[in-house]
Amino acid sequence: MLSWMWVVWLVAGLALVGMEVHTQAFYALFIALGSFAATVVALFPTPVWLQAVVGAAVALLGTLLVRPTLARLSARHLGPKLAMPGASDNLVGQPALTLEPVGDENHPGHARLFNERWLAVTTTPGGVPAHVQVTVVEVRGTTLVVSPAKGA
Q1: Rounded to whole angstroms, what are the CA distances from 16 to 35, 47, 65?
Q2: Is residue 43 in some structural domain?
Q3: Could you please report the per-residue DSSP string of 121-141?
Q4: Do residues 133 and 122 lie in contact, with contact meaning Cβ atoms separated by under 8 Å?
Q5: Domain interval for residue 22
Q6: Which end of the chain is more exposed for a tag (fewer CB within 10 A), N or C?
Q7: CATH code assigned at 110
Q8: What are phi and psi of 143, to 5 degrees?
Q9: Is residue 83 part of a domain?
Q10: Could you report the per-residue pLDDT of 10-31, keeping only the tens digit for each?
């Protein structure tokens, strides 16, 4: 009755390989390998739960043990980051002015950078008061991480 289960596992594995080609994050790859392992187990008369356990174990072990090494190797072969005008990396080191008190992630404020108002946080203990010159030290999405400018 369950002799067709190997087809389900195989199709799932192939779909996940296709997903991995587009994401290149090395997560779908290991789930696909788990599906292929479940396909092999399904070729023998085994219950579906055992097939799922084998697939999950292969996916989990691959993700935890092999993925970090693959991600490191992949990052090494990408080469240097491209510097593009307007990219957030170009904002690091730029001067800004706090418009209101700026605290941690739970107490953000705003800063003016290039005549635009940005959400800002700081790692400076006690925060940064309003109308203080700051320097952008990091960009998290659309939020600036700032610290008081030298000499301010």
Answers
A1: 9, 23, 19
A2: yes
A3: EE-STT-B-SS-EEEEEEEET
A4: no
A5: 5-78
A6: N
A7: 2.40.50.140
A8: -115, 130
A9: no
A10: 999 999 999 988 877 788 999 9
Q: Given phi > 0 = left and psi -120 to 50 = alpha, else beta, which region is 93?
A: left
The answer to whether residue 105 sits within a structural domain is yes
Model pTM greater than 0.85? no
Three-state DSSP string of 9-39: HHHHHHHHHHHHHHHCCCCHHHHHHHHHHHH
> In what helix (H) or strand (E) does residue 118 lie, and over which residues does it extend?
strand 116-122
How long a stretch of residues is the chain?
A: 152
Closest CA to 104 of 130, 131, 123, 128: 123
Distance from C-alpha of 43 to C-alpha of 10, rounded to nearest angstrom: 11
Radius of gyration of the chain (CA): 25
3-class state of residue 45 by DSSP: coil
C-alpha angle 61-67-72 in degrees, rounded to nearest 5: 155
